[in-house]
Design brief:
The chain is of the alpha/beta class. It is built from 18 helices and 16 strands. Helix 3 packs parallel to helix 5 and helix 14 runs antiparallel to helix 18.
Amino acid sequence: MTMANVKTGGAASHGGHGHGHHPAPAAAQQVSDYFVRIGCDPLTEAFAKRSFSPPWRGSRPVDSDDVGAVFERIFATPRTETAVAYVHVPFCQTHCLFCGFYQNVWRAEAGPAYVDDVLAELAARSTTALIASAPIDAVYIGGGTPSALAADDLARLVEGLRRYLPLTGDCEITLEGRAFGFDLAKAVKVADAGVTRLSIGVQTFSTQVRRRLGRKLAGPDVQAFLSDLVALGRTAVVCDLIYGLPGQTDETWASDIVTVDQLGLDGVTLYALNMFPGGPMARAIEKGKLAPGAPPGMQARAYAEAVGRLAGLGWLQVSQSHLVRSVRELNRYNAAIKRGVACLPFGAGAGGQANGYRWRNVIDIAQRRDMIAQHREPVEGLALVPADHAAHAMIAAGLEAGRLDLAAIETLRPGFRAAVAPLLANWAAAGLGELCGDGFRPNHAGAFWISNLTSGLSAGLQSATQAAAGGCCEPA
């Protein structure tokens, strides 16, 4: 996997990626929980830690006896709007320390059969109303490490997507990968098949830090590969960087930003390190084998410095974590996920949502094959999305884009503006952004704390929902 583990902080999660679990309902949050002390440094001290406001909070699980019938109804219901698709490849060559979603070690012999499985799934679903009724304008092939697949298998997979799905003529097809196990011949092969965008997980160009993370290639080798991809000119080329890594210094982070600019990439995504309790990195730190990651204040400074420096070099910030320097870098899939559009999942472990429900495909490949053979739907975590899902998506998308449209959210949930007015006034006074007519614009400090802002506004959404229901509502 490149970066799905850290995308909860602002980008992408890749939205559709295989995170379909439904945690127990969390305690209801109050708007007052997110007030910031006036006079503190808003960039480094606004909140003690970054919070997480998942869009599926409040989802209602479907009874296991009803899963088959509900799932059949989902696919029999046509779409009225353009969707995106996500294809999951659940294999990795190594288990990197920062990753919390490792599933299966990569074995070359497993690739062809897995692609056969996904192609069969695409063929079986292609004629359903959900798939065939409206266009798909972005596809993301993620994982895992999709680029580990053999060139011929990747080509077969992409050609199958184009054959079975109603892709638009300018559909963005992203292949996620890493420099290790990738080469220019494979890049040419996938471009010929229809891939328009390569997203390479770099994390850092510092060889020393990379080695500690479990990455195989030295920084200069990764730079050389990216430079060759850019020179090839067949696709948009973007990469991921993480700030706050153990052993990462101000100097190595600044060097990473300079390198990204000099490589001529089309885009870059900047993610804060997200430490998974009990994960391999957390265990290594507990045992003293790895230095602790940077605290939130240091992460905030790294984020603001990088965004400011890239903006000064001519890069355009299009979302909280993503900056572009090329007109061909559309970042269409990730932007669509934030808007809450339908995401159609394919492959073991892929997650998505459509027609008011969300679900995850079973991750275990053998179990999935057995369920299909038994004519059972190979899904788990099927749930009805919260009633305010569209309003929550509008909050997330607005903050990502740099302007919260209060009037539009009020249309979906009357009472929202009144519920959050004191909170927004506090954030503006504290230096997290500015109120402007019917909107709120987060600045660099507000953007860094975007997950906390989302949580606070979601609490306001819950308050408005509760007021509309006469004081009783479901927990957030």
